[in-house]
């Protein structure tokens, strides 16, 4: 076989696509513009670098759609999930990782693969020849973005991802803060104490909201609009929606008991999650922000326990672009106007590290199957992967298409199960049981087809 698969972008989706295709015997070239061409959010030239959070969210594969996606990727030999589990940090019921060690391991694995070559160059157009996957993610370069816009004839739809700040652990006042996961989740003591909690009284909360609303914010460039994705709202935007919004969101005080004052119920709680294996860095959970740097330090030091905080990284904001995939992509994730090109990852309109990697997994397998002449069986819609790809390639309403996390609302109902909150546990277990069976059958069929071809 002489044809190569070219993958543009070495993030979650591109790395996973390369791994899957290479393991199917296809020669792969990853085109990654970093570190020659830098972005606002990236710090290194590593593949699989995490720029927003260090969490892959819930690892519960029986009651959570994200956890189910984790399980499916592991069953498919996914590089991202395998590496995440190898470098996981205590995070209660979530899968959080040491982001530096994680990216270094992803990079090393792809460099070592005999079917993978990495080219550090910028691709700025959509080629007419060859087989390509574009997985450039939220920070697609301006030149490539313009080429995509020209080809699709569709305006890029933009929202803004905001980056949460990271605090040095030894600068947190633990005589005020305490270690505890919400509802003591986790099987070990380390998991049950995976978060640092900073309590607020009502007066402290009100003063914090006032400061948040008054703080200097990053201005948008001319022609840009703040079409935020609700799963990654800057905290000041949440505060603008109502003074109680944060207290019922990332600062909710439920499931926590302050050991310094066990009889006093905090009015609000700020949580910090461990960000590296050494436990020297913690990120402020849900505190994505577009405040200017000077304002951030002043406002965040109002949080009890963070009055002397040292910041390893302050928050920031960057633009994200995504396709109107229901109108532009076919069921194989190919661009309808240029079928030699597939898109994968966040640029397709999925949101989150896990979802991006999952779409890379499918795109890599689909492209490799096409190159080897062994068409891939249709992805079962009742799996987490199937629910996502069905949504972005036709299941969503094109006129109102917005980025989407995986969730059970994308799954087809299971007959005979009750709706509503009371039946939720049984319903979610039925979804995951059905998905696991369908995904296992799908993978088994590919193994059979591969054995027959040999």
UniProtKB/TrEMBL annotation:
Cell compartment(s), UniProt: Cytoplasm
Known cofactor(s): FAD
Catalytic activity: uridine(54) in tRNA + (6R)-5,10-methylene-5,6,7,8-tetrahydrofolate + NADH + H(+) = 5-methyluridine(54) in tRNA + (6S)-5,6,7,8-tetrahydrofolate + NAD(+); uridine(54) in tRNA + (6R)-5,10-methylene-5,6,7,8-tetrahydrofolate + NADPH + H(+) = 5-methyluridine(54) in tRNA + (6S)-5,6,7,8-tetrahydrofolate + NADP(+)
Enzyme class: transferase
InterPro entries, A to Z: FAD/NAD-bd_sf (IPR036188), MnmG-rel (IPR002218), MnmG-rel_CS (IPR020595), MnmG_N (IPR040131), TrmFO (IPR004417)
MnmG N-terminal domain: residues covered: 5-373
Any one Pfam family match given in the protein's UniProt record, by short name: GIDA
Top-rank lineage group of the source organism: Bacteria
Keyword Cytoplasm attached: yes
PROSITE patterns documented for this protein: GIDA_2 (PS01281)
SUPFAM superfamilies in the record: FAD/NAD(P)-binding domain
Enzyme Commission number: 2.1.1.74
Keywords of the record: Cytoplasm, FAD, Flavoprotein, Methyltransferase, NAD, NADP, Transferase, tRNA processing
Residues bound to FAD: 9-14
Family classification: Belongs to the MnmG family. TrmFO subfamily.
Role noted for this protein: Catalyzes the folate-dependent formation of 5-methyl-uridine at position 54 (M-5-U54) in all tRNAs. NAD-binding protein involved in the addition of a carboxymethylaminomethyl (cmnm) group at the wobble position (U34) of certain tRNAs, forming tRNA-cmnm(5)s(2)U34.
Protein name: Methylenetetrahydrofolate--tRNA-(uracil-5-)-methyltransferase TrmFO
Native source organism of the sequence: Thalassococcus lentus
Gene assigned in the entry: trmFO
């Amino acid at each position: 076989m002489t044809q190569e698969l070219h993958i543009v972008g070495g993030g979650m989706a591109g790395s996973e696509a390369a791994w899957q295709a290479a393991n199917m015997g296809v020669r792969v070239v990853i085109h990654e513009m970093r570190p020659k061409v830098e972005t606002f959010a990236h710090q290194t030239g590593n593949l699989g670098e995490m720029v927003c959070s260090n969490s892959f969210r819930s690892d519960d594969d029986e009651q959570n759609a994200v956890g189910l996606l984790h399980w499916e990727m592991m069953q498919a030999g996914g590089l991202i999930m395998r590496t995440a589990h190898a470098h996981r940090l205590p995070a209660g019921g979530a899968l959080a990782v040491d982001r530096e060690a994680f990216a270094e391991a992803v990079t090393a694995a792809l460099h070592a693969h005999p079917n993978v070559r990495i080219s550090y160059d910028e691709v700025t157009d959509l080629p007419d020849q060859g087989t390509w996957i574009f997985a450039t993610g939220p920070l697609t370069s301006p030149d490539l973005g313009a080429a995509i816009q020209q080809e699709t004839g569709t305006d890029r739809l933009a929202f803004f991802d905001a980056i949460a700040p990271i605090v040095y652990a030894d600068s947190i006042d633990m005589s005020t803060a305490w270690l505890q996961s919400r509802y003591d989740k986790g099987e070990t003591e380390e998991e049950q104490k995976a978060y640092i909690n900073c309590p607020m009284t009502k007066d402290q909360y009100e003063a914090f909201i006032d400061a948040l609303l008054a703080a200097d914010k990053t201005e948008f460039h001319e022609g840009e609009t703040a079409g935020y994705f609700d799963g990654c709202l800057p905290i000041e935007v949440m505060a603008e929606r109502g003074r109680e919004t944060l207290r019922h969101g990332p600062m909710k005080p439920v499931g926590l008991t302050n050991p310094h004052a066990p009889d006093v119920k905090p009015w609000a709680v700020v949580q910090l999650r461990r960000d590296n294996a050494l436990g020297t860095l913690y990120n402020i959970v849900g505190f994505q922000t577009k405040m200017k740097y000077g304002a951030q330090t002043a406002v965040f030091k109002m949080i009890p326990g963070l009055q002397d905080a040292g910041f390893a990284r302050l928050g920031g904001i960057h633009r994200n672009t995504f396709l109107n995939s229901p109108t532009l992509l076919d069921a194989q994730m190919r661009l309808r106007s240029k079928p030699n090109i597939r898109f994968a990852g966040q640029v397709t309109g999925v949101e989150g590290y896990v979802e991006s990697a999952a779409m890379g997994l499918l795109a890599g397998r689909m492209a490799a199957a096409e190159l080897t002449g062994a068409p891939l069986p249709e992805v079962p819609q009742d799996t987490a992967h199937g629910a996502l790809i069905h949504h972005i390639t036709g299941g969503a309403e094109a006129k109102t298409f917005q980025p989407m996390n995986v969730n059970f609302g994308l799954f087809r109902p299971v007959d005979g199960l009750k709706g509503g909150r009371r039946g939720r546990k049984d319903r979610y277990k039925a979804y995951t049981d059905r998905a696991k069976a369908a995904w296992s059958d799908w993978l088994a069929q590919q193994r059979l087809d591969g054995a027959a071809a040999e």
